[in-house]
Amino acid sequence: MPVLTLDRISKSFGALRVLNEVSFSIEPGEVFGYLGPNGAGKTTTLRVILDLVRADSGMVRIHGAAASDPRVRAETGFLPGEFRLWGTMTGRAVLDHFAGYRPDKPPKLRGQVLDALGMNDATLRRRVKLLSHGTRQKLGLVIAMQHDPKLLLLDEPSIGLDPIVQRGFRELVQDFARRDAAVLFSSHVLSEVEEVCARVAIVRAGSIVAISSVDDLRRLMLRTLTIRFRESVPHGLDALEGVERVSVAGREAVLHMRGDVNAVLRFIAAHDVDDVIFPEPQLEDAFMEYYETGS
Amino acid sequence: MRPVLNIIRRLAGRYAVLIFAASFLLGLFQFLITAVVSTFDVPAMLAGVIAFLPANVRTAMDLIFGGLSPKGLIGFGWDHPIAHTAGTVVAVVLGARAVAGEIEDGTLELVLSQPISRVTYMLANVAFAIMAIATVCAAGVFGSSIGQRVFEQQTATLGELARVAINLGLVLLALYAITLLASSLTREGGRALGIGALIAIVSFMLRVVALLWRDIAFLEPYSVHSYYAPRTTLEVGRIPAGSLMVLLPLILLTLLLAFHRFERRDIP
Is the CB of A86 less than 8 angstroms away from the CB of B266? Predict the structure, then answer.
């Protein structure tokens, strides 16, 4: 059974439709990327999941139960995108306060998460208002993770984290997946999503325009292959399977193609070439393609 | 129950200074009023001044000072703007911060993403406000009692003072409930605070002006403060039934509206 299911969620604020029939589900052990630029509807989706914002239509289920039941949030951890805390409390008091909402679930992962994020006892003794933005963000991650939730909702989680801590954070996320937790990773930073997520949804103006594995997205995206022939560019390149467009300049041909590359490779093998440039497909390219074409 | 206590503990930590300051102010003020009543012949001092005032103002002053009796003067202390300010600040700040203030701070989203219902969150806030208001009012009783003991005066019994404090507490709770309703309708703590403070000031001024200018006496029932009668409570020995019949339903109804609105709104 999926840990999280969204079924045709729609939401409008006045005349502005911010979510339009959003549907997806996340299985145990899955890190699911939720990609889109600012204003696409990512944060609203997370708020609907947590029953902070009430959907106009559709249904959210967590472990099969309606998300409006507060008990389902006992197994949920959340890091808001605009994460803020009470400045006069110490870091430790904040962690204890949030642990207090789950009297039956002790914060058993607190030590492990603190270590992974490089936080020590001296930091936790300081008042929140005296902590840097990055340290507060780390505190937010500990709040979200310390009770070992089965569903982790992270909204732009790595903002303010330095590269070393980001690595520790990504390892934590992958640990959660290994323990069969489901992670919803909302971000507009494509490189980190690509690194931790197996499957992504791309959201555009409140609608999901693609849900796919990262590998499939790469496979289906329009890629650029540059071939420098030893002699003139042979005829027939544009007729090959998967090739959508060919531009030729002297002995160099640039192929815009998608899908299976075997036909092109066989064609290349039959000719003498000086060089072949075929860059690794990046998720960013797929993302930009969806945003540019809207398809 | 544990999550409710968890929220109350956090609120206690956050507002301890405010509640202590308001309690200290009200307690000290009641102590000083008792000291003044015991040390000086206030009725004689005021009678000389009041004799020169216009007739309608004299009548109002008589009502305010309770016929210049010792109990009337103790009652005046409990109805003084300083006494009202001490309690009102606590009531309005707590009401405004409970929802709109927490939204403005960006903390409510994280709290409500925990396994607690919105009703639980509101109940914890209301329970804390009742405790805070009770603490402030109890400090006033403490100040009056200590004053009477120090100056060897037995103007009002502890029971009479407690009833006055309960009456004041109900007025403050009504102001809290009104501010909480405003707080659950907006997302800016400052706006909710402004609405609560404005209603408190207008209500207080309306009663004072209606006492001085009887032509607008018909507006008096619309002032929450007109259901607060410390002098009558001290003299009769009980809170006027009319005050309870208005204040209790007003508090209940306003809290229900605030809960209803909060339950249905989007956060933030």
Answer: no
Cβ-defined contact of B109 to A97 (cutoff 8 Å) = no
The H-assigned helical ranges of A65-145 are 91-99, 110-116, 121-124, 133-145
Look at residue B266 and tell me whether its pLDDT is greater than 80. Answer: yes
Residue B149 has φ and ψ, to the nearest 5°, of: -70, -45
Distance from CA of B268 to the nearest CA of A (A): 8
A100 touches chain B (CB under 8 A): yes
- Residue A6's H or E segment, with its range, is strand A4-13
Give the H or E element holding residue A33: strand A31-35
pLDDT tens, A149-197?
999 999 989 888 888 888 889 999 999 999 999 999 998 777 778 888 9
**pTM of the predicted protein model:** 0.85
Interface test with A, best of B6, B113, B123 (most A CBs within 10 A): B113
Q: Least CA distance to B262: which residue of chain A?
A: A52
3-class state of residue A290 by DSSP? helix
**pLDDT per residue over A220-248, tens digit each?**
778 889 999 998 999 989 899 889 899 99
- What contacts B241, CB < 8 A, 6 or more positions away? none
Residues ≥6 apart with Cβ < 8 Å to A264? A225, A240, A241, A242, A243, A255, A257
Closest residue in B to A56 (Cα) is: B266
Q: Is the Cβ–Cβ distance between B97 and B189 less than 8 Å?
A: yes
> Residue A293's pLDDT is what?
61
The Cα B173–Cα B92 span in angstroms is 9
Interface subset of A 242-261, CB within 8 angstroms of B: none
Q: CA distances (Å), A36 to each of A39, A48, A162, A198, B83, in order?
A: 8, 17, 22, 16, 55
Helix (H) or strand (E) holding A61: strand A57-62
Residue labelled with tokens 């919105």: B118
Task: Say whether pLDDT at B28 is over 80.
Answer: yes
Of B6, B106, B267, the CB nearest to A101: B6
Name which of A19, A43, A50, A72 to mutate to probe chain B: the one with the most chain B Cβ atoms within 10 A of its Cβ. A50
Residue pLDDT, tens place only, A57-106: 999 999 999 999 999 999 999 999 888 899 999 999 999 999 999 998 99
pLDDT at A126: 95
